[in-house]
Amino acid sequence: MSTTQPRRLVLRNELAELERLGPWIESWAQDGVSSDTSLAVQLCVEEVVANVIMYGAPKGSSLEISVELERVAGMLLARIEDDGREFDPTQAPPPVMASSLQEAKPGNFGIHLVRGFANGMDYVRRDGRNQLRLRFIEPPVTSH
């Protein structure tokens, strides 16, 4: 897997914006990313963005959330940044258990979902921005 130019999407702090993430990630993943890895990236990025929107942004605030995806030397990197108050989405409050499958949506799973799928993550506050980086190791393609 070679290095690719990062692809970037900017979202507003509204839960309706999550609907834009799935198709955007699927489009990015069409270029040789396995469906399992693509789904893991999508679930994790949606969960982090939902946590930022629900817990990291003061009510009524205008917050810009940037999502960047990149392939680098056998890894897929997802960077999620926002310009809100200091908030580490990996420390988001535990989820409320959904009473049905229909209620199991991003923001209800908790950051343990991200820990289960991502191969690594780190959070920093730099230059007035919250920055979270998720790493996914893409399994090598085997030929038969």
SSE layout and pairing:
Elements: E1 7-12, H1 18-29, H2 35-56, E2 64-72, E3 75-82, H3 111-117, E4 120-126, E5 129-137
Antiparallel strand pairs: 1-2, 2-3, 3-5, 4-5
Explain what the structure shows.
The structure is a single chain. With 144 residues, the protein is α+β, with helices and mostly antiparallel strands. The chain has one domain: Histidine kinase-like ATPase, C-terminal domain (Heat Shock Protein 90, 2-Layer Sandwich). The chain contains 3 helices and 5 strands. It has helices at residues 18-29, 35-56, 111-117; strands at residues 7-12, 64-72, 75-82, 120-126, 129-137. The chain has a 5-stranded antiparallel sheet with strand order 1-2-3-5-4, with helices on one face. Helix 1 runs antiparallel to helix 2 (35-56) and helix 2 (35-56) runs antiparallel to helix 3 (111-117). It is globular and about 45 Å long.
**General shape:** globular
Largest beta sheet: what is the strand line-up? Answer: 1-2-3-5-4
- Summarize the amount of helix as a percent range: 25-40%
Low-confidence stretches: none
Sketch the major β-sheet.
5 strands, antiparallel
User: Order of helices and strands, N to C?
Assistant: EHHEEHEE
Count of domain modules: 1
Span from first to last CA?
19 Å
What structural class do helix, strand and pairing data support? Answer: alpha+beta
Strand content: 25-35%
CATH topology annotation? Heat Shock Protein 90
Number of helices: 3
